[in-house]
Amino acid sequence: MSNLPQLRTLNNGVEIPELGLGLWQTPESKSANIVYEALKIGYRHFDSAQWYNNEKGVAKGIKRWLKEDPKNNKRKDVFFTSKIKDPDHGYEKTKQTIKNSLEQIKGISYIDLMLIHSPQSNKALRLGTWKALQEAVDEGVIKSIGVSNFAVPHIQEILKWDEMTIKPVINQVEINPWLTRKEIVNFCHKNGIEVEAYSPLTRGKKLNDPILVKIAKKYGKEPAQILIKWSIQKGFIVLPKTTHEERLLANIDVFDFTISDEDIAQMTHDDEYQVFCSWDPTTYRG
């Protein structure tokens, strides 16, 4: 395999690998091993969440890799993300739930990125959560903070808040060629906020799309690899997920080719809005 994910620099100067392993629905029992195996082949970015119930397993996999070769395997080279679950919005609840996450990941010292998982509460609670996250950054237990599934109005709440001392570094949303979310993407990029694409593989629903299959054949790649590369060339940080070790290698082996502008245009359906996940909190207006 040639090349590995490049690093992107966030608006706070922190670097993040442009491709990571999504860990939604990866059971605690499997997460430690899949993370360890991923680290061995070059992954350095792992996306967990309190809702996923696998923070502990992910940390266990990272710790195993760190202990295996302390001279070369460094904590600073691994990027670990978690997310605040919706019922725990608000200042006090968030302070407590951050402590809970830190307890789960004991041994890897800190969280690289903590996101608000979705906007599903209200403005006062969301801003209370942001206040607690800012304090956690000041304390050094979290390095960067951001949001997930936020629409433009939800992000504006934070940016316009007079108590904002730290700007979101990332908005993580479902994105693929049939769900391009141009309004959210343009707003984020205009404000120096990186966009992370989750479910880039459409949960497998579009892997047989005729245009995608044709383009994959042209480049000698699998349709999944073309979708991952589409996200990267569109400027997104991409989070393909798998619980199968044999898929880990294919999903990261996307740095030895470039899709032409013509083929990118052919794949991209800005006029469609196909949500493949079971939710779309960007439409939440509470």
From TrEMBL:
Ranges annotated as spanning the membrane: none
Sites where the protein binds substrate: H117
Keywords: Oxidoreductase
Domain NADP-dependent oxidoreductase intervals: 19-268
Record InterPro entries: AKR, Aldo/ket_reductase_CS, NAD(P)_OxRdtase_dom_sf, NADP_OxRdtase_dom
GO MF, any single term: oxidoreductase activity, acting on the CH-OH group of donors, NAD or NADP as acceptor
Entry-linked SUPFAM superfamilies: NAD(P)-linked oxidoreductase
Keyword ATP-binding on entry: no
Positions of the record's site feature: Lowers pKa of active site Tyr: K83
Protein family according to the UniProt entry: Belongs to the aldo/keto reductase family.
Name of protein: NADP-dependent oxidoreductase domain-containing protein
Source organism of this protein record: Maudiozyma exigua
